[in-house]
């Protein structure tokens, strides 16, 4: 069976791709997968007194992170929805953006947010991704997995459905690349002992790895797998 070695990463904000699956992206690229990503919001417009420079820096930093990890942003397809306000948009409008990326990439693997995060944008992007990749006849996408975002997934402990990983990726070989990509987004990182810190993320990678007998891992919850 011929494998379609293309991956689409669908995120709400530029930096989610590194926080949630940066090591996995680097690993997939190392395995000769072509990895593409789209972001749905500007990532900063919800902040008080944000500047055009912050917008420009976020974009610049995301391109730097992409170069480090080896993936490509679909900049012309990515959405321009307002940060932390995606619930004010019709779901269909968001789905159509993802469907455009789907048509261009035609991925075998899709990676996106866990649908029960505390962040509303993460929730909606996950729902829209599953909608865009409905399992129709002759669908190319065979695997949809969701990642965790420190300071979002871990804060949603009041939710009925919490993140329960059942798919783990060994990233020990790729941790340094993930760290360099996180450093590209240094303005978005917090100081330790916040979970969204370099040390916090390293601790998480060790914890997730230790859960399955590995040194370091990224954890995912499977949303759908189709095996033919």
Overview of this structure, please?
The N and C termini lie close together (9 Å). The longest helix is centred in the N-terminal third of the chain and has 18 residues. The chain has six helices and seven strands, in the order βαβαβαβαββααβ. The mean pLDDT is 94. 37% of the residues lie in helices and 16% in strands.
The helix fraction, in percent, is 25-40%
In DSSP terms, counting alpha (H) and pi (I) runs of 4 or more, how many helices?
6
What is the arithmetic mean of pLDDT?
A: 94
Calculate the terminal CA-CA distance, rounded to whole Å: 9 Å
| Strand arrangement in the largest pleated sheet | 3-2-1-4-5-7-6
* Low-confidence blocks of residues: none
Largest sheet: 7 strands, mixed
Count the beta strands: 7
Strand content: 15-25%
Radius of gyration: 16 Å
The computed structural class is alpha/beta
- Element-by-element helix/strand order: EHEHEHEHEEHHE
Q: Per the principal axes of the C-alpha atoms, what is the gross shape?
A: globular
How do the helices and strands line up, and which of them pair or pack?
Blueprint: E1 6-11, H1 16-30, E2 34-39, H2 52-69, E3 72-73, H3 91-105, E4 109-113, H4 120-132, E5 143-147, E6 167-170, H5 175-184, H6 198-211, E7 217-225
């Amino acid at each position: 069976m011929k494998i379609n070695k293309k991956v689409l990463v669908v995120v709400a904000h530029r930096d989610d791709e590194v926080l949630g699956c940066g090591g996995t992206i680097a690993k997939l690229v190392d395995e000769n997968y072509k990895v593409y990503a789209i972001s749905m919001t500007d990532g900063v417009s919800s902040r008080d007194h944000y500047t055009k420079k912050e917008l420009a820096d976020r974009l610049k930093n995301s391109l730097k992170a992409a170069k480090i990890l080896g993936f490509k942003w679909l900049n012309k397809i990515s959405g321009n929805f307002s940060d932390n306000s995606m619930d004010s948009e019709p779901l269909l409008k968001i789905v159509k953006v993802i469907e455009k990326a789907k048509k261009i990439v035609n991925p075998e693997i899709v990676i996106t947010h866990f649908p029960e995060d505390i962040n509303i944008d993460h929730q909606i992007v996950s729902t829209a991704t599953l909608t865009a990749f409905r399992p129709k006849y002759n669908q190319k996408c065979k695997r949809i997995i969701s990642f965790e975002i420190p300071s979002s997934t871990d804060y949603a402990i009041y939710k009925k459905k919490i993140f329960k990983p059942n798919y783990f990726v060994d990233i020990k070989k790729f941790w340094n690349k993930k760290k360099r990509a996180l450093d590209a987004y240094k303005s978005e990182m917090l100081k330790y002992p916040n979970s969204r810190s370099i040390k916090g993320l390293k601790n998480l990678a060790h914890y997730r790895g230790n859960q399955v007998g590995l040194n370091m891992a990224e954890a995912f919850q499977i949303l759908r797998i189709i095996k033919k």
